Amino acid sequence: MMRLPVPLVALLLLLVAGPAVATDWGDVGTPSPGPTQSIGTYWAGCIQGAQALPLDGPGYEVIRVSRNRFWGQPTTIELIKSLSEQARQRGQSHLYIGDIGLPRGGPMPTGHASHQVGLDVDIWFERSNKRPRLAPAQRENPLLRSLVRADDTGIDDQVYSPQHAELLRLAAEQPNTDRIFVNRWIKERLCHNTTGDHSWLHKLVPWYGHDEHFHVRLYCPPGNPQCQKQAGYPMDDGCGAALDLWFRTGPSPAPATPPPEAKPYRPKLPAACQQVLKAD
């Protein structure tokens, strides 16, 4: 399978998207010039000088490439490469890497409220062994199985394996990981089954969905003064009362679907983001 180098992919995306003068973040196909800087919050911000994750690496491949959401901070790129290599060394099959952010960050037209400053990445749980690398067209709709039963009553043990626990531990132990969002059932299983050191479990934060993938959020890097860190959270393993709250209300509610005429919510971004959006 022919693999295009990232600069050529970026050029092709620019030809499709047109010049980088746009009124919406999804309209711009390339990053803004300048040193890499995350500006604002994870859910209301942007990124200058974003870097592209190469579409293929020794232990991973980017899926849904047509979305052009494989741009982020260098620390995010390095985390993905490091985690993928560590998983590969342990005999795991390659990782499917999903959304990081748009070339200039900012709100995505669909799919996320966060992923706006290049410090979030979705990594899919699919661990089927000996699966081949995907052709470009197949990357748009790969097999992505949930770890949770369809009726939301617990872990699907036909899919879940110790590899998932190992992968989450490796991700939690990466030096720049702030927190990882996972489904409540996944957190519960790890709380019950993890032996020995529990310290890494505090970085696993229950959240709706996140049964087919986990969402890694990184700290604001040094030298990014306009990047606003997220509030902290308890430093215990999170396996007590905080986790119990997620099971007191019954099954997880389905995400609300806005009426067709509703305009998508757009957070107020820092003023500097307009310069990022419109930069040539």
Give me a quick take on this structure.
By secondary structure, the chain is of the alpha+beta class. It has six helices and eleven strands.
Return the structural class.
alpha+beta
Mean pLDDT, all residues: 88
- Largest sheet, spatial ordering of strands: 8-11-9-10
Rg (C-alpha, Å): 19 Å
CATH class category label? Alpha Beta
What percent strand? 15-25%
Unreliable stretches: 1-21
Name of the CATH architecture: 2-Layer Sandwich
Number of domains: 1
Question: Largest sheet, if any?
Answer: 4 strands, mixed
Describe the structure.
- It is a single chain.
- This protein has 280 residues and is α+β, with helices and mostly antiparallel strands.
- It is built from 6 helices and 11 strands.
- The protein has one domain: Muramoyl-pentapeptide Carboxypeptidase, domain 2 (2-Layer Sandwich), CATH 3.30.1380.
- The strands form 4 sheets. Strands 8-11-9-10 form a 4-stranded mixed beta sheet. It has a 3-stranded mixed beta sheet with strand order 4-5-7, covered by helices on one side.
- The two termini are 34 Å apart.
- The N terminus is likely disordered.
Secondary structure elements and pairings:
Layout: H1 6-17, E1 37-41, E2 44-48, E3 51-52, E4 56-57, E5 60-62, E6 71-72, H2 74-89, E7 95-97, E8 120-124, H3 162-172, E9 177-182, H4 184-193, E10 204-206, E11 213-218, H5 241-244, H6 272-278
Parallel strand pairs: 5-7, 9-10
Antiparallel strand pairs: 1-2, 3-6, 4-5, 8-11, 9-11
Helix pairs in contact: 2-3
Key terms:
alpha+beta; 21% helix; 6 helices; disordered N terminus; 280 residues; Muramoyl-pentapeptide Carboxypeptidase, domain 2
